[in-house]
Amino acid sequence: MGNLEEALWTQENEQYWHGIAAGGTMKLFVWDLHGTLEKGNERAVIDISNLVLERFGHAERFSYGDNSRLYGRKWYEYFAWLFETPDHERDLALQDACFSLSESSPEIQCRWVRPTPHAPAVLREIKSRHCQVLISNTRAETLKVFIDALEYDDFFSSGNAFAVDGHTERPVNSKADVLADYLRDAGRGFDEIVIVGDSPGDMKLKAVAGGITYLFAHPDVEFRQCEPDHRIRDLRAILKRL
Fold first, then answer.
1. Is domain 41-110 in CATH 1.10.760, yes or no?
2. What predicted TM-score, i.e. pTM, was given to this entire model?
């Protein structure tokens, strides 16, 4: 992570600094991206995967209905599921091609991806009072595409939006590593940490420094199996922590 002041100033939140100076309460909200702050990416994943399959000369295709079986898996695991013949190198090559296509053709992502209902208003309210950080399993280049497409650049930039490239077999950093680094570099404790995500891995971030966990699921998606402090389907429930 870069210089602390750069990381915090990118949020352009004067109340943040006034709160510190006055000894006020300061909370940290830790956000996941896919399935939490956006909806529709699962359809974009299917579209991109099928385009790549076509370009590589494969006859197999995904359907939108496959999302219910594959949701939450790494991208190369989609291809391992699709093909009858195991070939890990093939699956990784297809995954790399998918990421390249999504970065070079953001209009494919924009076709489906939308902010989760109420997300912009919730992010705006948190920004006016507290600090927030976005930690995503996607790649850095792709994360920028999503932030721009969702028009979240007023809330997240290089100082508080981090990609861990979790789709690789052995990621260099985990979400827990990034959160630990962020908290260490902050140079002060937060009065409360609020963790919001859609996966068991997100809920495990509580082990880094404690906090309150909220497992989110869209109305048409089943909650993932884990033990959060709260389960919600409306992001406005987070405002109770303000």
1. no
2. 0.86
